[in-house]
Amino acid sequence: MIEVLVKGLGPNVDEAVVKSWIFEEGDAVTEGDDLVELRTEDSVVVIPAPATGILTEVYFDEDETVQRDEVICVIDEEEEDSDDNDDDDEKDDKEDEDG
User: Fold this and answer.
1) CATH fold group of domain 2-98
2) Is pTM, for the whole model, over 0.85?
3) pLDDT (tens digit, 9 = 90+) per residue, 83-99?
4) Is the CB of residue 19 less than 8 Å from the CB of residue 38?
5) Dihedral (CA of 50, 51, 56, 62) sign
């Protein structure tokens, strides 16, 4: 589980408003994908996905205020090679039946 923090607001900016979510809960995301746009008084900041996985929790809706370093959402990392593991299990099952 990866907690995504509000970062990159600027040196003297402590809060921002959620402008829009690019992904929704349950969506698959890839590391580096833009997750959410935050609006400060001076600019729009995009928070990227720090890992590949499923966006499982979104803690703030659009137009809500978030603070610097606050957890804004959670990504559950996908298991690597999950398809390969399924194939290995099938081979083991067949060997058990044959042997």
Assistant:
1) OB fold (Dihydrolipoamide Acetyltransferase, E2P) (2.40.50)
2) no
3) 444 555 555 555 555 55
4) yes
5) positive
